[in-house]
C-alpha cells in the first residue's frame, strides 16, 4: 500500500473550545507529521467561541506558521457547528480532524494515511481502550451501541473522533447538526452515499487539562434531541415516506 505522498493535499482541523493547554502541542505534532505524507498541507483551528485564551493562542500559532490558520466563531455554536466549519473551510484532497482536548495522539495520523488507498473514502480510528471515568465509559458504550444498532453504521466506534475523509466524499453529503450528534450524522450520511470505510485502532488518553465541555444539561439534551431527529429522518427514509 502506498500513501498519498506528494500527490494528495491534506488538511487537518481541530475543533477548539477552551483548550488553551493542549492546542499548541496538537499543532506542533500535526506540523511534524504532515510533511512525511505530502508537501501540500494545512492546519486549521476552529475556535468555537472559547472563553479562555484559546483564541489568542490560535492566532499566535497562525502567525508562527504559514501552514496554520485560525477561524473564530463569535460565540459557542456547538461541536457539530465547529465540525461543519472545519469541513467548509479546509482545502485539502484529504481532510483529517480530531478533538482539541488532546485525548488522541495526532502523530497516529500515520496509521490512517496508508489505509487511504484507491477505493477507500473514510479511515476511522477506534479506541483501543477508553481512558475516561466509569460513568463516561458506560454512557459512551451505550451511545455507540445504540447508534450502531439504529443506523446500521459501518464502523465499530462512531464516538472516536479520529477521522480521515476524502473531500470528494464530504462534497456528496450535507451536514446540518450543531451538537455532538454530528458524528452519527456524518457517518450515517457517508454510508448512505456509498462510501467505503476502513478502520484502525488508536490510543485514547486521559484528559490532562480542564474538563469535558460536553457534559452539561444543555449540550447533552441537544445531542439527544438531534440523535432522535436523525433516527426519525432515517426511519421515514427507510419506510419510503421521504424521497
Short structural summary:
The chain is α/β, with parallel strands linked by helices and 243 residues long. 38% of the residues lie in helices and 18% in strands.
Q: Describe it for me?
A:
This protein is an alpha/beta fold and 243 residues long. It is 38% helix and 18% strand. The protein has a seven-stranded mixed β-sheet with strand order 3-2-1-4-6-5-7, sandwiched between helices. Strand 2, helix 2 (54-64) and strand 3 (68-73) form a beta-alpha-beta unit. The mean pLDDT is 88.
Please, what is the average pLDDT?
A: 88
The major sheet is characterized as: 7 strands, mixed
Large-scale geometry? globular
User: What is the number of helical segments per DSSP (H or I, 4+ residues)?
Assistant: 8
Give the neighbour order of strands across the main sheet: 3-2-1-4-6-5-7
Strand content: 15-25%
- Secondary-structure element string: EHEHEHEHEHEHHEH
The total beta strand count reads 7
Which helices and strands, and how do they pair?
Elements: E1 10-16, H1 23-33, E2 41-48, H2 54-64, E3 68-73, H3 79-88, E4 94-98, H4 109-112, E5 122-127, H5 134-151, E6 162-166, H6 167-170, H7 182-192, E7 197-202, H8 217-239
Parallel strand pairs: 1-2, 1-4, 2-3, 5-7
Antiparallel strand pairs: 4-6, 5-6
